[in-house]
Amino acid sequence: MNEGNLVLELIKEINKLWGPVYPYLARHIEELYGRREGTAIEIGPFTGVIFSLIEEGIGDRFVIASFPFGMGAFFIEQAKEAGATGKIEVVDTDPSLSGIEEKSVDLAVFRGAFFFPSLFDADLAAVYRVLKPGGLAFVGGGFGKYTPDSVISHLGKRSRDLNLQLGKVEISEQVLRRQIGESRIPVHAEVIDEGGLWVVIKK
Fold first, then answer.
1. Closest of 9, 88, 8 to residue 48, by C-alpha
2. Residues in CB range of 163: below 8 A, 6 or more apart
3. Are 43 and 107 in contact (CB under 8 A)?
4. Of 169, 68, 66, 165, which is closest to residue 114 (Cα–Cα)?
5. Which residues contact 5 (CB under 8 A, 6 or more apart)?
6. Which of 49, 122, 129, 148 is deepest in the core (most CB within 10 A)?
7. pLDDT in tens, 104-147
8. Sign of the dihedral defined by the CA atoms of residues 68, 71, 75, 76, in that order
9. pTM > 0.85: yes or no
10. What CA–CA distance (Å, rounded) separates 122 from 124?
11. Phi/psi of residue 15, nearest 5 degrees
C-alpha cells in the first residue's frame, strides 16, 4: 500500500472509531448554533458528526466538503450506511473550499483543522467566506463538552495511535490565536477550550 492510500485508510478508521462521539459532539454544536434550520457543511477528512446532525434534525440541507482526494467515495458509502443517501451532497474540494459558493452555509463544522499540518493547512478565511451572514463555524478538535469519560476512555488509546500515525501535533491556545490573527477574518473569533480546542466564528 502506498503512502497516500495508507493515509486514507487511517483517516477512515479514525472516522469510524469516533462514531460513538458524534451524537454528543452534535449536542455541543447545536447548543452553540441555536437553530434547527439552515445549510450545514462538514469540512475536511475528519467527517462524521454531520450524520448525527441529520439524525437530530439540525439543519435542512447537508454538504460534506471532502478532501484529500479519495475520501469522497468513502463518505458516500458512509451516507448509505447511515440511511442518509439523498440527504447529503459530497463535494470534492480542498482547504480553500473551491466549489463551495460564497455565503452559502449557515453552519460549518471543521474537525481536526489545526492539528494535522502534514495533511493540510486550515484556511479560516475560506471558512468565513462560505458562511452566510448570521452563520456559525465550529472549527478545531476534541471530544466536545458532552462526551462521557466512558466513551473517551474506550477509544482513547487507538485514537491517539492513529492520530500520531497521521502526524497530529499539539498546539497551544496562544499559537491558535496567532493563526486566527494571520487569517485576517474580519470578525471576532472566540477560542473555547471546553471539550477540546475550538474556534467559534460568528459572521
1. 88
2. 14, 115
3. no
4. 169
5. 70
6. 49
7. 999 999 999 999 999 999 999 999 999 999 999 999 999 999 99
8. positive
9. yes
10. 6
11. -65, -40
